[in-house]
Amino acid sequence: MTAKHDLIEYLLRLGDSALVQGQRLCEWCGKAPALEEELALMNVGLDLVGQARNWLEYAAELLDDGRDADHLAYRRDERAYRNLLLVEQPNGDYAVTLTKQFLFDAWHFQVLHGLSSSRDERIASIAAKALKEVTYHLRRSSEWVQRLGDGTEESHRRMLAAIGELWRFTVELVTGDEVEQRLAAAGSAPEPADIAAAWKARVADTFASATLPLPEPASHFYLSGRRGLHTEHLGLLLAEMQFLQRAHPDASW
Amino acid sequence: MYAQLVETGVKRVKALEEMSPEERAFQERIDAEIKIEPKNWMPDAYRQTLIRQISQHAHSEIVGMLPEGNWVTRAPTLKRKLQLMAKIQDEAGHGLYLYSAMETLGACRDEEIAKLHSGRAKYSSIFNYPTLSWADMGAVGWLVDGAAIVNQVVLQRTSYGPYSRAMVRICKEESFHQRQGYEILLHMMRNGTQAQKDMVQDAINRLWWPSLMMFGPSDEHSPNSAQSMAWKIKRQGNDELRQRFIDQTVPQLELLGCTAPDPHLKWNEARGHYDFGEIDWSEFYEVLKGNGPCNHERIATRRKAIEDGAWVREAAVAHARKNQKKDAA
User: Fold this and answer.
1) Residue B65 is nearest to which of A29, A146, A245, comparing CB atoms?
2) N or C: which end of chain B has fewer CB within 10 A?
3) Is the pLDDT of residue B2 over 70?
């Protein structure tokens, strides 16, 4: 495996996770519990899709095979998608949506924090800009975890159910693979172990303040977003997202 | 127009000499173009008319997120997706400004929203039409936001200060949306395949007349207009605004290389305006009554959002109370 191949793989992971998370937020349009939340969900989604575009543009440049960011987003099948399994999970109720957002934001924040001092200047600059946005995302989702965890009996119960539903997918957030190890060794990306430690501390802290019990660490999960082995949810998500590009492959929009 | 038919509850406009001293002072202030502010005295009918109009306008922003939300998950490129998300976010923001402006009149946001959900309050008829292709995102931006701007530019001079100021902020963002919408269509017409061009013409065919209906009934059938004009809530008649919209839109239509679904549309040299065909007013009133293509779905979606979200809002309130107690202790 070449360093360039590793880098492309990694950029796709970053881009795909941001894009799929953003796509899920789009599904909330017009359906949020309050007007302020409509605004916030679309705002966070907008940030994420913007970040996805930056990562995919860089990946496309390195690939140098005639594909651009849109081609990568709209013409790859689920087996070629590299997003975390967590972000492709359905929105469920607001507790599921916010728990998913928080678990992702807490990971995303640490990753971008590490990447903002990457030796790869392009990565460092994209990450520095994204980190500002994700700092806000994390503040917002942490506050919601506290509100719902330490709100009413019903909201607490729903948060427990949401965590129960999503926790198994967090194993991907706290384990790196060889690609990430090699990038870390080269100074391009943060150490997976550092990300894992910071993520666990943040989640433990927020759950404690939200009166939510911290589950045991998630154990091995058979699928892997990094290897393009997804849950059954991603195929449907992509069918919806990609349909126009697929139906009119020769069109320009 | 985002607020098409607003009852004033007033049958006949009073002359100055018929008014009480308070009413008279109020009307003189209006006539002198001095803005009315929340703490000023105002006739109850003026207050109620504005609450109806501003809430209708706010509801339109919120219901108006749905036809676009229908395509945000399917936008064809990352750039188009980002534009649409930014636009929807702006609309939610416009809804918030407008509800705030409405609240300065003593109305309650939740109560007015409950009226929307029970069918007692209206929103713009245009959002009861379905968005059936991606080209509709362009046509909505160009025609629907275009019609809204023609109306809202005038409302920047409306007599109630908070409403007028909300319009100034909203207009800036709306004109940006309109240009983006037009650009979507122009791009498809200039660089597109035949299928895309057909999509554009089809979107225009479906949305042309509903956009013209956004200006409300013609002046002779608009019994509330006289009072709204006397109060300077409205500044121009429905027909005048509709004509202005058509005059400025037809050249844009021609630049696209598209046509309007109106055989009577023709430049009239003598009038210096475009002549156009008769609007199907029976369709207009049916849609306004709740019998349009998507009335049912739009309200059902909004109602479900608020009902399903009740536990979230309750949790937020409960959590805030707990924090207050902690801070007090």
Assistant:
1) A29
2) C
3) no
